[in-house]
Design brief:
With 321 residues, this protein is α+β, with helices and mostly antiparallel strands. The protein is built from nine helices and 16 strands. The two termini are 33 Å apart.
């Protein structure tokens, strides 16, 4: 696996943003989108967000996310069509333009988390019905649920927080039709089941995840990303039982590392973002790379250098610039 020294050399090249002179640009928390009629160029930057805030840039993170998403889109296309057309660069995906649905599909198999939309945060507050899912008394943090549950979330506008909501509230707000809700739920459980089985073979637990869907010609299409460290929580299977019985935190391979670092500094989304030292950024990068290799079973390959120029060169080759 790529080591700390190589990651350290890439710190100054971490991709914070792009400014291409094509199409109409839309900047998300992590991705820079360029709309070109019926196509969209998605550039996954190295930005990392948590608590609905963009925090810093993690070397090679964008490449990890883009290549993991491409891996999973290919593995799951028999369950649900996706928007991918091609991957012309390690950080770039060219996709079909879809009508994004205003609800994120979230599936959880364990009770955990630190954000205000997490199931453990709400359980600690005394909530025993989470997004329409009744929860028994006596659950402990990181405990496996009897079966995975569906806990959708609204997509917040900038400067606002996502909100976990149940079916009744989604229908009341006219965010989805009942048919769309049930279809989203059905597909999400199938995707989660497949993802769980595949990562289990690698000694990994898929704890929870989110999926985003769009409509293309009235048909459901999987968009954005799937089973990456930004959209999913992964734990190591071999130490799960021992750590849970001791009441200790699980070994993680997701962006919870950054969330917990900031939470320990007293930051949970409000006020000024604390400084994130280089050693924390390097460790986060290592965890992203580790996630790629453990989850996909493939070796992560990357070089130190100017990502922006490489992207421009590859987009020119593809006839997009």
């Amino acid at each position: 696996m790529i080591g700390k020294e190589l990651i350290k050399k890439q710190l100054d090249f971490a991709l914070k943003e792009t400014n291409l002179s094509i199409g109409t640009k839309y900047k998300g928390k992590v991705r820079d989108n360029y709309l070109l009629g019926k196509k969209r160029i998605i550039i996954t930057t190295d930005r990392i967000s948590a608590f609905d805030r963009v925090l810093t840039a993690i070397p090679f993170k964008g490449q990890v996310l883009n290549q993991m998403a491409a891996f999973w889109f290919e593995k799951t296309k028999h369950i649900c069509k996706n928007h991918v057309l091609e991957v012309p660069d390690p950080n770039v995906m060219v996709v079909k333009e879809c009508e994004a649905l205003p609800v994120e599909a979230v599936v959880r198999a364990y009770i955990t988390g630190v954000t205000t939309t997490s199931i453990w945060y709400n359980y600690q507050k005394g909530i025993r019905n989470f997004c329409g899912n009744p929860l028994p008394e006596g659950l402990k943090k990181n405990q496996k649920l009897k079966e995975p549950i569906f806990t959708p979330s609204t997509k917040a506008e900038k400067s606002f927080h996502d909100e976990s909501v149940g079916k009744a509230e989604i229908l009341k707000r006219n965010l989805l039709t009942e048919g769309q809700f049930e279809r989203m739920k059905e597909i999400s459980f199938k995707l989660f089941e497949l993802g769980s089985k595949l990562v289990e073979k690698q000694g990994i637990i898929l704890v929870d995840t989110k999926y985003e869907f769009g409509l293309l010609g009235g048909e459901f299409v999987l968009i954005d990303e799937i089973h990456t460290p930004d959209s999913s929580r992964f734990w190591f299977k071999d130490t799960y039982k021992e750590l849970f019985e001791k009441g200790e935190e699980q070994r993680k391979i997701d962006k919870e590392y950054i969330r917990e670092y900031l939470a320990n500094k007293g930051f949970t989304g409000q006020g000024e973002i604390p400084e994130i030292p280089d050693e924390i950024r390097i460790e986060a990068a290592l965890r992203y790379i580790q996630a790629f290799e453990l989850v996909t079973g493939q070796q992560f390959k990357a070089k130190v250098g100017d990502i922006k120029q490489r992207i421009i060169n590859n987009l020119k080759k593809g006839g997009y610039l």
